[in-house]
């Protein structure tokens, strides 16, 4: 999958970012054990092997969200994408993976925009996500996840989307991860987790 | 019917008439015959009565007929009405039928349309079918292709397997080679050992050689050393010889040495002095330089001093020239302040003067206008006077001596007085005007002087302002303080800004947002909400199950045993349980059947034994058998046997009963002597039988 683009368009950038989110969310779900590991299958992407879910309902939900997100990325109306992990028993938010988006609407075709460099950056981000497992606290109880999108206030949303709260963590520790940019969209990643009392 | 009635009526009338005419004729004929008059009268009366009756009858029949006619009409009307109703109903039916017909037609049309659609759908389906068939064919082709590929792959696999076999063979060959080489290695190692031993021998020899070599070198060295020593000694001898010669020169040398030492000391001292002197010169040189510099500075300072003195002189001169008592800058500043104050005052004065000047101008103009007006008035008055004079002269000319002359004269006088007054007033106004003009002129002069002074002061002020250090120093210091304060505030604000930015960053990391500009959205059907719902449902289900189980347990504890009421859980039984249940049921059935069969057989056997042997054998207690004979006299007569020894051995012993006491003889004979229980039993049977038959 090595495309050598002379430049990158807004549509191409939106697709790249959406693809990254799709694989990134799958990695998070696999690493944090939200869904059992046997429901994931190995695929190759960005020259590394990643896990992708085979659960039909989950796939459907993800494609819905990601396709809508792609549209909004094209319009540059989305500010953040957040993966919220909640404990089912206590209804507390345990982890929050936040991806900030900065959109440069005044884009111009740069001289040397290489797909390989963007891929390298995305690879490092995903490796970092995998590495965070070492310091994040264990999720012992059954958890579920939700995807929140921060958009402009006046954006018209389709019927299936409803407004929700930001679902912030009470007493959180935050860690900033790497970012990557396609010169049109810049994605900053960070993870916030609930401070455990033992530490 | 009417015609018929009419005809009947007419016929009756005709008959009546005919009858009337008949009897009339008869009457006429029989008029003369009075003899027949009573009978004829009776007969005529009778006829009349009959005719009346007939009339009445015909009337009644007429009435009947009319009634019938009316009835017929009524029935006719009714029939007509009914017919009309029927017609209506039939028309309605017709309408209904028409409507139904229309509806049916519509239905038919709709059905036709549906049929068409169905046909179209059918066609489409047929086309789809064809397309699917085509797809199927393509898929078959693809499958074939894939099969071919598979076969190729299989071929590849077989080839690869052959290759692997070949490689295995190669490996084996290699291994054999390896083993041969190992053997070679061993041989070589043995050789190596041999070589090593040789090497050791050689090394020993070499060491010996080396030692001998070293010994030889040592000896050589010794030789060399000895030779050297010899050479030295020869040299020494030579030296000794020279020394001897030199010894002669020793005292001279000693003297020289002394001298040289003294010189040395002297030179050292001089050297020290030299160094001291050098330092002194250095210091002096530096001093000289400094002094020269100082001299230069002094010259410069003197020049400056002269300049400053000149300036000071100039300042003092200024002071003297300006007529002010200036010795120090404070005086100058004081003077400046005074000048400024004076300036201010002068300005004020100027302002007031200007105002007064403007006022005076206004006054002047007003006065001018007044003067003009007065002149005009004067002119008018003069004209009036002339007029009056002319009038008076005219009066005078007209009247020589009149009574009006004193009055006129009086009037003239009055007019002249008026005129004089006016003239005086005029002169006064003129004087006032001249005064005002003079004042205006003086004011103008004053203003010009003031402006000149002001300009002079301004020039002075400008020249003084440069040397006015105090005021500016104060300003500068105040400005510096302000700057410092602002700098401190700026730093504080910068720190605050940094803190706020960090806080904002932290909040942004935590996920905060500005509700005015952004909103947070998510899908309604998201995994968390679905999971929560499922969780809640599970919890609910588990709670219900728990409740049911608790109830069941309570019932079981209360009732005991498995109750088959509605508290039993409808647990879907697994297949094993069902199988086991079936097995259990079958086993129980078998058991039951076996029991029945056993019972039956036992019963049969017992009855057979009873019948054949004549004894009913009951097991009363474990190992005890009670035999009751068929011929027993009483029901209680029984023999008791006990089984002794191990079970199944068959050894029995007779126990004492009431009945057995009556059979002691038999017991002794058969049991004690013959030791045979069957014989005893048969003997007892015979005995009893004989007893029964006898009795």
UniProtKB/TrEMBL annotation, chain A:
<feature type="domain" description="HORMA">
    <location>
        <begin position="11"/>
        <end position="191"/>
    </location>
</feature>
<dbReference type="InterPro" id="IPR045091">
    <property type="entry name" value="Mad2-like"/>
</dbReference>
<keyword id="KW-0539">Nucleus</keyword>
<dbReference type="InterPro" id="IPR036570">
    <property type="entry name" value="HORMA_dom_sf"/>
</dbReference>
<dbReference type="InterPro" id="IPR003511">
    <property type="entry name" value="HORMA_dom"/>
</dbReference>
<dbReference type="GO" id="GO:0051301">
    <property type="term" value="P:cell division"/>
</dbReference>
<dbReference type="GO" id="GO:0000776">
    <property type="term" value="C:kinetochore"/>
</dbReference>
<comment type="similarity">
    <text>Belongs to the MAD2 family.</text>
</comment>
<protein>
    <recommendedName>
        <fullName>Mitotic spindle assembly checkpoint protein MAD2A</fullName>
    </recommendedName>
</protein>
<dbReference type="Pfam" id="PF02301">
    <property type="entry name" value="HORMA"/>
</dbReference>
<dbReference type="GO" id="GO:0005654">
    <property type="term" value="C:nucleoplasm"/>
</dbReference>
<keyword id="KW-0132">Cell division</keyword>
<keyword id="KW-0131">Cell cycle</keyword>
<dbReference type="GO" id="GO:1990728">
    <property type="term" value="C:mitotic spindle assembly checkpoint MAD1-MAD2 complex"/>
</dbReference>
<keyword id="KW-0498">Mitosis</keyword>
<dbReference type="GO" id="GO:0007094">
    <property type="term" value="P:mitotic spindle assembly checkpoint signaling"/>
</dbReference>
């Amino acid at each position: 999958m090595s495309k050598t683009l002379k430049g990158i368009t807004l549509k191409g950038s939106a697709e790249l970012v959406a693809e990254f989110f799709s694989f990134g969310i799958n990695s998070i779900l696999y690493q944090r054990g939200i869904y059992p590991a046997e429901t994931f299958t190995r695929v190759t992407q960005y020259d590394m092997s990643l896990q992708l879910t085979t659960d039909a309902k989950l796939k459907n939900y993800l494609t819905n969200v990601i396709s809508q997100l792609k549209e909004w990325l094209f319009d540059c109306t989305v500010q953040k994408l957040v993966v919220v992990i909640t404990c089912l028993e206590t209804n507390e938010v345990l982890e929050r993976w936040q991806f900030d988006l900065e959109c440069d609407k005044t884009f111009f075709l740069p001289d040397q925009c290489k797909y390989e460099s963007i891929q390298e950056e995305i690879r490092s981000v995903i490796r970092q996500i995998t590495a965070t497992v070492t310091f994040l606290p264990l999720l012992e109880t059954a958890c579920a996840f939700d995807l929140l999108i921060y958009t402009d206030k006046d954006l018209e949303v389709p019927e299936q989307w409803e407004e929700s709260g930001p679902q912030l963590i009470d007493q959180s520790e935050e860690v900033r991860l790497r970012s990557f940019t396609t010169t049109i969209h810049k994605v900053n990643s960070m993870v916030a987790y609930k401070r455990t009392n033992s530490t | 019917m009417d015609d018929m009635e009419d005809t009947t009526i007419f016929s009756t009338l005709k008959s009546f008439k005919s009858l009337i005419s008949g009897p009339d004729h008869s009457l006429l004929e029989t008029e003369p015959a009075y003899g027949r008059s009573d009978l004829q009268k009776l007969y005529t009366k009778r006829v009349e009565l009959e005719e009346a009756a007939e009339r009445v009858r015909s009337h009644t029949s007429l009435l009947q007929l009319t009634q019938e006619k009316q009835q017929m009409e009524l029935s006719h009307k009714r029939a007509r009405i009914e017919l009309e109703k029927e017609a209506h109903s039939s028309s309605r039916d017709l309408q209904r039928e028409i409507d139904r017909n229309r509806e049916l037609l519509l239905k038919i049309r709709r059905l036709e349309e549906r049929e068409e659609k169905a046909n179209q759908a059918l066609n489409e389906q047929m086309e789809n079918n064809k397309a699917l068939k085509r797809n199927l064919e393509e898929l078959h082709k693809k499958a074939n292709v894939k099969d071919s590929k598979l076969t190729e792959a299989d071929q590849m696999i077989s080839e690869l397997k052959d290759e692997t076999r070949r490689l295995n063979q190669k490996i084996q060959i290699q291994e054999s080679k390896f083993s041969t080489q190992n053997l070679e290695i061993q041989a070589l190692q043995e050789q190596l050992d041999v070589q090593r031993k040789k090497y050791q021998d050689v090394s020993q020899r070499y060491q010996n050689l080396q030692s001998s070599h070293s010994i030889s070198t040592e000896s050589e060295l010794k030789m060399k050393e000895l030779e050297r020593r010899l050479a030295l000694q020869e040299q020494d001898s030579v030296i000794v010889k020279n020394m001897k010669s030199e010894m002669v020169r020793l005292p001279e040398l000693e003297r020289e040495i002394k001298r040289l030492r003294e010189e040395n000391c002297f030179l050292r001292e001089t050297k020290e002095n030299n160094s001291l002197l050098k330092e002194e010169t250095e210091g002096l040189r530096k001093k000289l330089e400094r002094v020269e510099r100082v001299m230069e500075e002094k010259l410069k300072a003197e020049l400056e001093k002269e300049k400053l003195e000149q300036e000071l002189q100039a300042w003092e001169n200024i002071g003297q020239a300006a007529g002010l008592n200036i010795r120090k800058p404070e005086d100058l500043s004081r003077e400046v302040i005074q000048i400024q104050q004076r300036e201010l005052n002068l300005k004020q004065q100027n302002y007031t003067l200007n105002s007064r000047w403007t006022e005076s101008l206004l006054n002047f103009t007003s006065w001018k206008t007044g003067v003009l007006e007065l002149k005009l008035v004067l002119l008018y008055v003069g004209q009036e006077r002339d007029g009056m004079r002319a009038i008076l002269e005219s009066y005078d000319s007209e009247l020589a001596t009149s009574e009006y002359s004193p009055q006129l004269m009086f009037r003239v006088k009055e007019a002249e007085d008026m005129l004089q007054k006016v003239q005086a007033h005029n002169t006064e106004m003129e004087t006032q005007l001249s005064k005002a003009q003079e004042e205006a002129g003086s004011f103008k002069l004053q203003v010009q002087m003031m402006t000149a002074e002001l300009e002079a002061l301004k020039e002075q002020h400008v020249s003084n302002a440069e040397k006015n250090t105090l005021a500016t120093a104060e300003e500068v210091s105040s400005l510096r303080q302000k700057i410092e304060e602002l700098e401190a505030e700026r730093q504080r604000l910068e720190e605050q800004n940094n803190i706020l930015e960090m806080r904002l960053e932290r909040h942004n990391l935590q996920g905060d947002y500005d509700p005015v500009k952004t909103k947070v959205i998510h899908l309604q059907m998201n995994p968390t909400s679905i999971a929560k719902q499922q969780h809640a449902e599970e919890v609910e289900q588990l709670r219900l199950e728990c409740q049911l189980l608790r109830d069941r347990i309570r019932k079981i504890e209360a009732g005991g045993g498995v109750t088959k009421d509605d508290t039993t859980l409808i647990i879907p039984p697994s297949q094993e349980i069902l199988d086991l249940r079936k097995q259990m049921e079958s086993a129980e059935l078998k058991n039951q059947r076996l029991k029945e069969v056993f019972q039956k057989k036992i019963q049969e056997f017992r009855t057979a034994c009873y019948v054949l042997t004549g004894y009913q054998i009951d097991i009363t207690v474990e190992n005890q058998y009670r035999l009751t004979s068929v011929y027993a006299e009483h029901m209680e007569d029984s023999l008791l046997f006990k089984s002794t020894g191990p079970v199944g051995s068959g050894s029995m012993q007779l126990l004492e009963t009431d009945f057995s006491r009556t059979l002691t003889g038999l017991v002794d004979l058969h049991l004690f002597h013959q030791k045979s229980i069957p014989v005893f039993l048969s003997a007892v049977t015979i005995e009893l039988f004989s007893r029964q038959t006898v009795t």
